[in-house]
Structures
1.
Amino acid sequence: MKLPDAEPNPSLAGSLLFASPALRGAPFERSVILLSQHSAEDGAFGLILNQPTGQSVGDVLQDPAFRPLRHISVHQAGPVAEDQLFFAALWWDGPQGLRLAQQISAEEAMVQQKKSGTLVRAFIGYSGWSPGQLEEEIEQNTWIVAPTPPQLLGLSHERSLWYEALRSISPFHRLLAEAPVNPSAN
């Protein structure tokens, strides 16, 4: 009896990408990316979760209509379309896992932020890959792919997210996370 072939190009949508410790320089050094879209035909789209800009929506959008969103922190989500600010909502949906409503309007962000268990973020730019590009980078060990843990929404989405989330994957990943940034400086 022949077993069915495994899916040749499974989607990684909903997974986390951790930048390899060897990946140096902006914008991806020690980044954690939530992949929201991925297919062999269309490439991939994701958001860097752990690069806060130090600004809030209130610093960027002065219009009184955006006042309910003024406290939401703005994150740099990637090097593509860095002139665009958009909102995204994340929530955990039990068996469905982490859910993401991306590129939502300010009005929808105001509705989403009132929902219990929903995290609303503002992002500048995004991370994108052409078809086959991400797969090639994964083969070159540029990215560590991991399932999104249920506790992701409760973790700080500051620079420390890379360390905290990576070290929880396995003992090997804990060693990677705890290695010095520049081993030659030791």
2.
Amino acid sequence: MKRICVFCGSSSGIKHEYAVGARELGLVLAKQNIDLVYGGGHVGLMGIVADAAMSAGAKAIGIIPRCLADKEVAHQGLTELKVVQTMHERKAQMSDLSDGFIAMPGGFGTLEELFEVITWAQLGIHKKPFGLFNIAGFFDKLIEFIDYQVEQGFIPQRHREMVIVSDEAEELVELLTNFQPVAQEKWASTRQI
């Protein structure tokens, strides 16, 4: 695995552990000789993970839409900063450049990016691993809800098993590195009531 895309908040959140985890993930990526692909901001967890990765020798490639770059949130010290026109273009480039994905604590944008790559994997559009860095139990309720969706018949168990979860950065990166894609089967149910 050469590059991992990290989705995370442009805020640092209210718990100190989030920032600690972001720094830890950046250092782990560098230690494993994995470069960072992310949203290109210098603020919040985005800036922390990028700065940590670069401080330890990894490359950090940021992809940011013009509307955000113009608001001066773009990280000017990255290995490479790509300014694109739209959020859709941003996500497409982040996906194309990455071998896997990690979601850290964040808001609506983080969740939207995460669920898009999960959906793409479910549909067989890509076979890249993705995981939740569950810092301080941030994703516990989301994981519980995903399990409820499985229980209610909306997500097949084999697709639930694609969602890798860990509260340890090093373990999560190792799990993504060793991931084996799920065999594709018909994903939609034809069951009638």
